[in-house]
Amino acid sequence: QVQLVESGGGLVQAGGSLRLSCAASGRTFSRYTMGWFRQAPGKEREFVAAISWSGGRIYYADSVKGRFTISRDNAKNTVYLQMNSLKPEDTAVYYCAAAAGGVVVSRTGEYNYWGQGTQVTVSS
Q1: Contact indicator for 19, 96 with CB cutoff of 8 Å
Q2: What was the pLDDT predicted at 31?
Q3: Which of 50, 52, 58 minimizes the C-alpha distance to 101?
Q4: In whole angstroms, what separates CA 1 from the centre of its chain?
Q5: 47 contacts 68 by C-beta, under 8 angstroms
Q6: Closest Cα partner for 13 from 117, 88, 108?
Q7: Which of 83, 88, 89 is nearest to 71 (CA)?
Q8: What angle is formed at CA 5 by the lines to CA 119 and CA 37, rounded to 5 degrees?
Q9: What is the pLDDT of residues 100-111, one digit of tens each?
Q10: pLDDT tens digits along 59-91
Q11: CA torsion angle for 99, 100, 105, 111 (degrees, to 10)?
């Protein structure tokens, strides 16, 4: 199995920035497509961004395109989500996830492993 631990969440004002990290352990990290999802109270978990194992394919939800950047450092077994120009609507628990093989990146059911989440709160 793969264990994922998110960090870097916190409280930030609208327009500010945060960088989330997801540290992986267990099975070979570089084989997995990695995704970021978020879940606000009363809402379904929604797709934010994803990156292929090689970093050659990157996907973003329309709501974060141009503001968020996903990257990975396989040597460090870590995936990052740089979040700029944050909005109150970005407030949620952010989760990283790992998927083996080709997947529809925006679907939660495609991912095999999940972290416990890190809280991001954006004040207006």
Answers
A1: no
A2: 76
A3: 52
A4: 19
A5: no
A6: 88
A7: 83
A8: 55
A9: 877 899 999 999
A10: 999 999 999 999 999 889 899 999 999 999 999
A11: -30
Structure tokens of 21? 């990290």
Q: How far apart are CA 66 and CA 111, in angstroms?
A: 24
Mean pLDDT value across residues 92-120: 93
Query: Do 115 and 8 touch, CB atoms closer than 8 A?
Result: no
DSSP the chain: -EEEEEE--EEEETT--EEEEEEEEES-GGGEEEEEEEE-TTS--EEEEEE-TTS--EEE-TTTTTTEEEEEEGGGTEEEEEE-S--GGG-EEEEEEEEESS--TT-GGG-SEE---EEEEEE-
Residue 4's DSSP bridge partners are 24
The residue with tokens 């972290």 is 115
Give the pair of three-digit tokens for residue 35: 């995704």
